[in-house]
Amino acid sequence: MASPPGREANKEYLADGFAPHIKGRAHVEPGDSDYDHGASATLEYALTGRSVRDPASPVPTPDGWRGVRVIG
Fold this sequence. Notes:
Elements: H1 10-16, H2 38-53, E1 58-61, E2 64-68
């Protein structure tokens, strides 16, 4: 399965929890590669995942968890 656009190291991130830095790896497309900047790519993937997940998080209430939190 191909990685989503802009997430070249997605397979490794999902399997291992981080995007690896692979020095000298040949680029499959022109431009920058996530493998050139593993730590930065890992942070980007994590922040993106969190921002997508948070708007649908359950909301704590005095009676327990219910509903969803809407941001915006």
